[in-house]
Amino acid sequence: MNKDCLFCKIGTGAIPSEKIYESDTIFAINDINPQAPTHILIIPKEHYSSLLDIEEADHELMGSIISVANNLAKERELDLSGYRLVVNCGENAGQSVMHIHYHILGGRSLKWPPG
């Protein structure tokens, strides 16, 4: 845990948030600035600054995140129309909180290429 990290504080409950999913290693919340009708953040509880911090030992955790993304998408019927799973790595890629997190975006037609 990083004591100055927004997502670490949310994960521990130091900053209140309505978690829509939680396990021992991962939690999910609705994005406070949604970019689509469905915009969910999936966040590991352990602090990783970015995707560049992921090592082979973390593959099980990363697989769990994808499984959670699929389950949350199915619960919201996004599997019927499609959804996007995004992870930004670094400031130029749009990462605004330096704690790895995945975005589930869906509920509307998404353009390609993004921004």
List the helices and strands and how they pair.
Layout: H1 6-12, E1 19-22, E2 26-30, E3 38-44, H2 59-75, E4 83-86, E5 102-106
Antiparallel strand pairs: 1-2, 2-3, 3-5, 4-5
Name the descriptors.
single chain, 115 residues, alpha+beta, HIT family, subunit A, five-stranded antiparallel beta sheet, 2 helices, 22% strand
Give an account of the 3D structure.
With about 120 residues, the chain is of the alpha+beta class. It has one domain: HIT family, subunit A (2-Layer Sandwich). The protein contains two helices and five strands, in the order H-E-E-E-H-E-E. The protein has helices spanning about 5-10, 60-75; strands at about 20, 25-30, 40-45, 85, 100-105. It has a five-stranded antiparallel beta sheet with strand order 1-2-3-5-4, covered by helices on one side. Strand 1 and strand 2 form a beta hairpin.
- Strand composition percent: 15-25%
**Share of residues in helices:** 10-25%
Structural category: alpha+beta
From the 3D structure, determine the CATH topology. HIT family, subunit A
Oligomer description: single chain
Flag low-confidence runs: none
CATH superfamily: HIT-like
Output the CATH class name.
Alpha Beta
What is shown here, in short?
The protein contains 2 helices and 5 strands.
